[in-house]
Write a structure and sequence with these properties.
Layout: H1 4-8, H2 11-30, E1 40-42, H3 44-56, E2 82-84, H4 99-132
Antiparallel strand pairs: 1-2
Length: 134
Amino acid sequence: MADINSVLGTHASSLAVQRQRMEVLASNIANADTPNFKARDIDFAKVLAGTQQESAGGTVTLAATSPDHATGSASVGGGLPLSYRIPLQPSLDGNTVDEQVEQAAFADAALHYQASLSFMSGDVKGLLTAITGQ
């Protein structure tokens, strides 16, 4: 018998990623007036690559080949990779938050979150239909 995670597919993990992305974006918006605050966002390409490696069963370990290489990485609560947003118009106080960009990214994340919820709702309704035989 398949577990519920295999039935719902990637939508459950997508909800978690989008929730964490909205937290990061909300933090960016909240710190729009904080001097030297650097806007960050979840790097979707790295999340996707990590998901593909997990599904393939392999892991990749990076090795520093020079003492000048940076060690460590920034991540959000679930270990998702964060990247700094490149500012379109840097401010004098070093803050890289552009409120319009952050609000648009937040709306995009909320839209993806809602879409995943809709897909999961359809999957659950399909399961209920199969169970009840209607």
